Amino acid sequence: MFNENDLEDIALKPMMETSSPGIKTPFQDLQKLRLDSLSKIQVFAYGIGHILNDAVASLWFNFLLFFLVEVEPIHPTDSRKAGSLAG
Amino acid sequence: MLGKIYYFSTRSIQLFIGSLVILVGQIVDGIMTPIVGILSDTSSTRCGKRMPWYYAGFVLVAVSFTFMFQPCRLCKLFGGSVTVSFLNYALFGAITNIGWAMCQVSHMSLVPSISLSRMRRDMLNNLRSNFTFIANLSVLVLATLYFEVFKDSKVQFQLLTYTTVVGGVVASLFFIYHIREKPLTTACHKLAKQYKRSFLKLSGGDVDEELVAFTSSDIEKPTRRGSLSEETPY
To answer: Is the ipTM of this complex over 0.95?
Structure first.
């Protein structure tokens, strides 16, 4: 039989053979096989699964430094003046 | 004149401390990302090997990030010194980034284990990038809106955080409800077997059931990096 490297070559084969138009090869049937069980709604759910992270990162990089300097300064001196500048 | 110098010097101190908070967060993120990657490669639980990390990270981010754009909450407990105030923001920032790394790594590494098709994997990644763009854009639009509508900058930032976190949590709950890792990977496992069987049949050889079982068992193997399942172009 074959080892892993051979398997990779063979697995590539059907793609290359079916790419030539007009000639029907038995490997075309393979392309009709499903390769996952994801429904449309699951694909969508995967897509929006990272929104919390993206939104948090956006807030973090865009506004956190401004917030810690102008709105809620960690160093308390003259915070009233600094705060009024932000408005 | 003196007032101006005084103002700028306190401002630069505030800038320094503020950027220190962000630096702490980024360092924690940088350390946690590879650690989570390595640990989630070897972990295996009842609900899959990536999803538990997502659940944990999701809770950490959602809870700790709401404390970021707020007045110092720990100062009420430990007194309002600069150290406590700094530790407050650094702590919540660090927890946020731990959760962030857990969510990001587990969400990204879910793709190759829930689909075997290269096209479908690409599609999932594309969709993910699209929603990254949409999320960034909507945060900026929302921020502009709030900065125009509300006068008090503390209110602006608190509302911005709450809206963003609530929106993100709803999206994450939708993801958690619909994506169950275990059934999806089991399905992939079976489909890979089926694919190999049909392939061997078509290529004229005898179908060796043992070989079919061996090659498709690679898909869920937790520790072998760059294993057959990740590389084989189906």
So the answer is: no
